[in-house]
Amino acid sequence: MTEMTLLAGAGLLCVATVLALSVIGVVTAERRGVARSVAAVQALDSAPAVLKEEIDQSFAERVIAPLGERLVGIGRRLVRADTAVKLQYRLDIAGNPPAWDVNRILGLKILGLAVFGPLSFLYLLGTGWPFYRVVIATGLAAGFGYVLPNVLLYNAGSKRETLMRNALPDAMDLLTISVEAGLGFDAAVSRVAKNGDGPLNMEFTRLLQEMQLGVGRTDAMRAMAERSSLADLKSFCSAMVQADSLGIPIARVLRIQSQEMRTKRRQRAEEKAQQVPIRIMIPLVLFILPCLFIVILGPAGIQIADSFSNM
């Protein structure tokens, strides 16, 4: 009995010792953690301003931005020397969207190449295709990722030019009426720029701002023509430049341009109307006529088949 009491006392003593050491260790670890936090705060307070600015930056600024710069550098080394100029021209045609610039497009091209290629390769490895087919499909997918930003940029520019082409005849009519009513060319351009919020109005607003900043009318009109690949707008700009250089009355030139653009718009509408029968032929032959044949000749075919089966 005495031995059991001694063993129980020894066990309780060991448990108490372990608990005491645990409490002491937790308190010590907590004090050390607090001391490290205080030391880190003091070090941050005494750090240089440049280091503080770098620490205060977000994850995107510290990680994603340098990665994007590396992708842009790789893209500039892979493309030709005139690619940046061509991309800037396409950006001007697209209206220079706020989130798009040459560097970002180059980075997106490399990012698409690096993402579409490996992902398609890993996916096609599990399909059981021969290795040469996997390599060819991977190359096509990587090429698609590389040209995808160009396709999106071209599509944005095409949509913008379509809107400008549709709005140009009405803008020319308003410009002609304003000039013939006695307004100066700058005031007429201002009226056209305020009459809506489309891409053509933005171009006239930029033209007016450049003339107000001191750029000559000829230079401003030429810059407007260079920012677009629309043939009608280029024709209007060149006509205004010639009229300004030769001293021809602007109202007469605007009247001729307005009539010409209205004629072109009517011709484009007639051309699209004549294309409707040709375009509707494919769905008519592939989808509509088979359904008509089934509905009209189906019951007769069933009756003929029953008649032959009864014979």
Descriptive account of the structure:
The chain is flat, with a radius of gyration of 37 Å. Among the domains are: 100 residues, no CATH class; 110 residues. 86% of the residues lie in helices and 0% in strands. It has 11 helices and no strands. The protein has 311 residues and is mainly alpha-helical. The mean pLDDT is 78.
Q: How much strand?
A: under 5%
Query: Mean of residue pLDDT?
Result: 78
DSSP strand tally: 0
Q: What is the radius of gyration?
A: 37 Å
Salient structural properties:
single chain, 311 residues, mainly alpha, 11 helices
Layout of helices and strands, plus pairs?
Blueprint: H1 2-45, H2 49-56, H3 59-78, H4 83-93, H5 102-125, H6 131-180, H7 185-194, H8 199-212, H9 217-226, H10 231-246, H11 250-310
Helix pairs in contact: 3-5, 4-5, 4-6, 5-6, 6-7, 6-11, 7-8, 8-9, 9-10, 10-11
